[in-house]
Amino acid sequence: MKQNIEFERCIDFLVRMIDKYGEELLRELEEDKEKNGQEKKEENEKKKEAAAS
C-alpha cells in the first residue's frame, strides 16, 4: 500500500512537471532539431565545394 502511495505521488509530480514545462521543452527540442539540420546542410555544402575543387 505504501508503495502505491509513493508511486501515485511520483506520477502526480511528473504530470505537474509535464504540464508546467512540456510545451517549452518541445519548443526547445524543435529549435535544436532545426539548428542541427541547418548545420548539417551547411557541412554537406562545404564538402561538395571541397570535392569540386
Summed up:
With 53 residues, the protein is mostly helical.
SSE topology:
Blueprint (H helix, E strand, L loop, with lengths): L1 H51 L1
Would you mind describing this structure in some detail?
By secondary structure, the chain is mostly helical. The chain is built from one helix and no strands. The protein has one helix spanning 2-52. The longest helix is centred in the middle third of the chain and has 51 residues, at 2-52. It is rod-shaped, with a radius of gyration of 22 Å. The model has no long low-confidence stretch (mean pLDDT 89).
Which features would summarize this protein structure in a list?
mainly alpha, 53 residues, 96% helix
- Radius of gyration in whole Å, from Cα? 22 Å
Number of alpha- plus pi-helical segments: 1
Q: Give me the secondary-structure category.
A: mainly alpha
Q: What is the percent of helical residues?
A: over 70%
How many strands in all?
0
- The coarse silhouette is rod-shaped
Mean pLDDT across the residues is 89
How do the helices and strands follow one another from N- to C-terminus? Answer: H
Give the distance, in angstroms, between the N- and C-terminal Cα atoms: 71 Å
Q: Low-confidence parts lasting 5 or more residues at pLDDT below 50?
A: none
Largest sheet properties: none
Roughly what fraction of the amino acids lie in strands? under 5%
